[in-house]
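@channel sequence for tomorrow's demo:
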Amino acid sequence: MPELPEIEALAAFLRERITGDAIAGMQLAELSLLKTVDPPLEALLGLELTGASRAGKALVIEADGLSLVCRFARAGWLAWHAQMPAAPVRMGRGPLGLRVALASGAGFDVREAGTRKNASVALVRQLAEVPALAQAGPDALALSSADFAAALAGTRSRIKTVLEDQRVLAGIGNAWSDEILHRAGLSPFAPADGVDAESLHAVMRAVLTQACEALVGLPPDKIKAAKKRLLRVHGRTGSPCPVCGTQVAEVAFAERSLQYCSGCQTGGRKLSDRRMDRLLR
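structure tokens (generated this afternoon):
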């Protein structure tokens, strides 16, 4: 799932290329993608694009008082075209969800791989009209150390759960929470109210800032691969930890998993993996 650094890089790429351009055409290929009806997508036609930005894990494309909010879910992303394809869009065929053509001849697609269609696009006058954004907490890079500490002090939930909770702070998902906790030397199962909030806040900002710096400037088709190269533990089950050499371990859940280093984060103790526990009985 694209998170704060990837969306920040995507917004920077688009901002340089679409600002001042105008929308010449829009073709919806997946009906379930669009979550709003007023204003209609056609309201964007002919409007000048005024920028692109990030709100949590959402991409926001701005056009003369309207905002096209793209939320990519787990398997969605954006494809950029320096010159738009000539082939017509077919409804419900393949990963294409929305195609946007610009007056310059360039444009972009919102795509989502797989059969589950959880990505979304909403055209709104105010960002608060998107429920997920209305309910979101402060941005992970904007939250002060004091406010972060207050948020952690109020819950005994696992620290990984808190970092991923968009209502607490917006922008962090499964991958970067694994990386932040590894850098901080914290177990993902540690109670949030028991961690050193000031230290974790500093690590969180450092990890996210460094990732943004590494990804900004890349085209959309290079961002995901570059992200994978930055990850030390997430998605690297069985590989040696680059810090201590311990084999990276995994805890699996119903639809996802987390990765951690027992040497760096849990004092050598393996965390319980209920899936493996059941297999070994």
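heads up for whoever presents: The longest helix spans residues 197-215.
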